[in-house]
């Protein structure tokens, strides 16, 4: 991957010209241009903190910017097989909520049955970035796909930190940049967002609209793995829908089965046959 500009684009303060940014930060316009173009990779922390104030960056983005300046080229690393701790795998199976484990690249390493029922792309071996941007089913699933993708890319930048030149990450970013205009635009914005909980709205083809919350929890001593859990407000319609979805998954219902099919099975009522309304 070619050198990335050290500084984010000026979208944070579009009203400022390059010379004005340099003046407000107390540096020369020529030096700022070198930073912006990636020709100077070692600015002082004081310069970066001044620029962060000018850009109006929050604490997470400022920390990310400072970490980039301290980065040094790392020796090539041989990809290693990542193993989810046995206790986390046991927890995934025990949880009655959609949950999965992912690594810093958002590769799904393990998932419980309810997570795969929530989205078929949440399965071991899949990558969440690739799925959300390239799978039409994922786009239909997310009620606000534009917002969801913006947050996903910003969180991805925070997750990989200074490892943007890792060959696996470079390959993934290159693939998505060629295949998705939306990803290309978001990647160029250099937004950074802390890995934290967030509300999620999904239109599930079997159980309808879901008002969920997603939590991302760090897994200790795992090399950066995260436990991702979707949950709903207790007693809500979404909580009931999640329970129905879990029952559909547990009974091995075909993908086209609906909540109404399950309710008919639970109450031992026959399913309506095509062409026999009211039977």
Descriptive overview:
The protein is an alpha+beta fold. The protein contains 13 helices and 5 strands. A 5-stranded antiparallel beta sheet has the order 2-1-5-4-3. The chain starts with 17 loop residues before the first helix and ends in a 13-residue tail after the last helix. Mean pLDDT is 79; it is low at 8-15 and 265-279. Strand 4 (208-218) and strand 5 form a beta hairpin. The protein has 2 domains: 10-70, lambda repressor-like DNA-binding domains (434 Repressor (Amino-terminal Domain)); 86-250, Beta-Lactamase. Helix 1 (18-25) crosses helix 2 (29-36), helix 1 (18-25) packs across helix 3 (45-55) and helix 9 packs across helix 11.
Q: Tell me the domain tally.
A: 2
Uncertain regions spanning at least 5 consecutive residues? 8-15, 265-279
What overall geometry do the principal axes of the alpha carbons give? elongated
The overall strand count is: 5
Overall pLDDT metric: 79
The strands making up the biggest β-sheet line up spatially as 2-1-5-4-3
Tell me the Rg in angstroms. 23 Å
Query: Which CATH class of the largest domain?
Result: Alpha Beta
So how many helices? 13
What percentage of the residues does DSSP assign to strands (E)? Answer: 5-15%
In N-to-C order, the SSE pattern is: HHHHHEEHHHHHHEEEHH
Helix content: 40-55%
Secondary structure category: alpha+beta
Distance between the first and last residues' Cα: 63 Å
Task: Return the CATH topology of the largest domain.
Answer: Beta-Lactamase
